[in-house]
Amino acid sequence: MPTHLKRSLEEISCEVYNSDPTRVRRVAKVMPSEETSDEAARQLKAVADPVRLRILYALSKEPLCVCELSVLLNMSMPAVSHHLRILLSAGLLKVRKEGKFACYYLRENRFVNEVLPCILQSLSQNLSPKEE
To answer: Which among 9, 24, 44, 112 has most CB atoms closer than 10 A?
Structure first.
């Protein structure tokens, strides 16, 4: 139960108007924790950038290094690295050293496996015929 709810579940109800005093209790029992909500918000914020969405789309197709992403996105390597750091800190990517290079992959987690495919699929569906 969220930490901000100091009262017991039996005490939780709307004191102004509520024809069903158990409604708030039912919802309180299934509310995600603040930590879970914070993690989801952090991941959504990381995805809420057009460049990072394009990076995630590219990495959903193939693992790539910074220089490959830089060419693909027509951006400088430092700019791409900045976006990769944000995606890494949000827990969306993992990195593996391959010789001199670092190769970036999508991380296996619930967000990447369940939420991200829906977002990326909507990008694919919005391609114009010549982009396909």
So the answer is: 112
DSSP state of 95: E
CB-count burial class (<10 Å; 0-12, 13-18, 19+) for 76 = exposed
What pLDDT, on a 0 to 100 scale, did the predictor assign at position 129? 54
Rounded CA-CA distance 93/126 in Å is 24
Handedness of CA 91, 97, 103, 105 (dihedral sign): negative
| Contacting residues for 117 by C-beta, under 8 A, at least 6 apart | 60
Q: How many angstroms separate the Cα of 132 from the Cα of each of 64, 75, 123, 125?
A: 20, 22, 11, 10
Distance CA 112, CA 55 (A): 13
Over residues 6-32, mean pLDDT: 71
